[in-house]
């Protein structure tokens, strides 16, 4: 089983939105074979809290434009890790320090990455 076309479409839209707000280290993993709850994990990082909020807001705005709504959101305001669950994809916006510490890329390194087609 691989990520659905819809999940990949949402992932690419979210990645582009994150890139528009200067998010760093944007990467997506197809976790559909390891997890039953979602198809894709999208990871990105930001240097500070205002940038994290800008990335979150832009992702939500872009995905809402194409009909996707968050099912659940965790870690806002003073948080250094924001998680947005869209069902088919889960977006992780992390502060750069948290990203280095938790190293989610290592955890999911056995999963295939998704070509985000970023400019």
From TrEMBL:
Task: Alphabetically list the UniProt keywords.
Answer: Cytoplasm, Repressor, Translation regulation
- Main site of residence? cytoplasm
A Pfam family that this protein carries is RsfS
Q: Name one GO cellular component term.
A: cytoplasm
Query: How is this protein named in the record?
Result: Ribosomal silencing factor RsfS
Q: Which organism is it from?
A: Aeromicrobium choanae
Q: How does it assemble?
A: Interacts with ribosomal protein uL14 (rplN).
Similarity annotation = Belongs to the Iojap/RsfS family.
